[in-house]
Write a structure and sequence with these properties.
This protein is α/β, with parallel strands linked by helices. The chain has twelve helices and twelve strands. It has two domains: 204 residues, inorganic pyrophosphatase (n-terminal core); 117 residues, Roll (Diaminopimelate Epimerase, Chain A, domain 1). The longest helix has 16 residues.
Length: 334
């Protein structure tokens, strides 16, 4: 982050302010971890911060310290809009284009106070007054750790803030197995452990607290998996009827797409999930090696993300969306 921007942000934070902190729609562990880590830091600096999520976050993140204070825009648009309009400063974390906030975009577009973006995705938009954007980082939470250091406030990182940061690093690094995990990542995590985080318990809360229905849904997704060895590709799908059959809850399909990459010889995996209430097919892409799923998602499925992890969407039927995908992979080099 440029020294001029750091200096300007320090000046902004010198006096108490009403501050809104925004994650992307359908927030994951990195989005919630980074926003709540910043929330707790700003409380220590005597500000009045509020985290406003565009929609509900998954139950497996509800244990995060401070999650009970998060406002959900879809559940209380009037109050959330009021908070946003009264904010003196706005942070947007783990996304770099306002459309990632869904309906909140129309409110955020009208905000005139300074906005600060902290994000690690490719091709950031230019809406923010100050931008800390770097695709080399595996998580926004790792960037939040650096951001706190830039402010010379590292001594304020306590067990609570460390827990939030560790959560985002763990989830976005695939439990430290993705290529973006560096030696610096591990050094930061070592510091967080020294601060007293319960890393084993956090992992259990994130990945091992399954419901029977969630495991049944995973089983169905694995049954639905199709493998194309000649294209080094696999995909699976879940229809709305299948989601309903196993009483789908937000977050139940988290990580399912990664199973396709565990098959020998497969470098590209996808999952297609039908959501009739939104009239949309939500898609997640994962890859190994040099195949750029960010570019693939942008070119073909109205999405984007990282080189090895991206998302997309389709407004066509589930059947037609999958047929389109099969047609594309038969013509490209993976």
């Amino acid at each position: 982050m440029k020294k001029e921007a750091i200096s300007a942000i320090r000046n902004l934070l010198e006096t108490p302010k009403r501050i809104a902190i925004i994650p992307h729609r359908s927030p994951d562990g990195d989005a919630m971890g980074s926003t709540l880590a910043l929330y707790h830091l700003l409380l220590k600096l005597n500000h009045d911060p509020v985290v406003i999520s565009p929609n509900d976050f998954p139950n497996f993140l509800a244990w995060l310290p401070g999650s009970e204070s998060v406002l959900v825009y879809e559940n209380d648009k009037e109050n959330c809009t009021k908070v946003l309009k009264e904010a003196e400063l706005v942070f947007t974390l783990d996304f770099n284009a306002l459309h990632r906030t869904g309906e909140m975009e129309q409110v955020l577009n009208k905000i005139t106070v300074p906005m600060i973006m902290i994000d690690h995705h490719q091709k950031p938009d230019s809406y923010a007054t100050y931008t800390y954007s770097d695709t080399a980082f595996g998580s926004t939470c790792e960037m939040i750790y650096n951001f706190i250091s830039f402010l010379d406030k590292k001594e304020l990182i306590d067990k609570t803030i460390a827990t939030c940061i560790y959560t985002g690093i763990t989830t976005d690094s695939g439990s430290f197995r993705f290529p973006s995990t560096t030696s610096t990542t591990h050094r930061i995590v070592a510091e967080l452990i020294d601060l007293g985080i319960e890393n084993s318990e956090i992992h259990n809360l994130l990945f091992d607290d399954n419901s029977y229905n969630r495991l049944q849904l995973l089983g169905r997704a694995l049954q639905n998996m199709k493998v194309f060895p000649q294209y080094k590709t696999s995909y699976t799908s879940l229809s709305q009827n299948e989601l309903d059959e196993f009483h789908y809850q937000k977050g139940d399909t988290e990580g399912v797409v990664n199973y396709g990459l565990t098959i020998k010889g497969i470098h590209f995996a996808a999952i297609f999930i039908e959501h009739r209430d939104e009239n949309i097919i939500k898609i997640s892409f994962r890859s190994q090696g040099n195949f750029d799923v960010n570019q693939f998602a942008r070119e073909h499925f109205n999405g984007g993300g990282h080189i090895n992890a991206a998302g997309g969407k389709s407004y066509d039927s589930l059947k037609n969306t999958i047929a389109k995908f099969e047609g594309i992979i038969s013509k490209i080099n993976i």
